[in-house]
Write a structure and sequence with these properties.
alpha+beta; flat; two-stranded antiparallel ribbon
Length: about 180
Amino acid sequence: MRVTGRFHNIGYTQDRKMLITFEVEEQNKCLDEADAIKDEKLLIDVVKYREKRSLNANAYFHILIGKIADALTSIGSPTSKSNVKNRMITSYGQQWMLDDGEPFVYKTNAPPEFMQEREEIHAKFIKQTDAYFYLIYRGSSTYNTKEMSLLIEGTIQEAKELGIETMTPNEIAEMMSHFGKEKE
């Protein structure tokens, strides 16, 4: 069960076990699913809520990716949009973390040149032994506003270094202020 809400209180049982209570917004969901988890041991993960990234921000990210690929190609370094996108995500994006908190490491026979062109996976080469090992990064469609903001800021910096015109700081601030306000 995954719901949104607010922290309410900390208390203690008679045998001094801590009780933490939350006010939840999706009450019907909690009522529907409470019986199924009543006596089960649970993994409880409380994180600060963030709005999902906006579609405008995602579109702007992809526009910058295209401009960077075009600029690199025009200066004699032919580069695909997939390659640039993977480089931006593995430089400024979010690693895919496993349930135990460890990063997702992928082992394959595919060399870095092949992996860098993949659309369906964002992988950063880490080592080669009997195979190739990569850290796997989440796709931008899973990012919240803060994560998307970091990705765009890094991508903007790289675009500027190539002389690519980007939005003005005011335009960027305006776009960022609309994160999560659009329906996905």
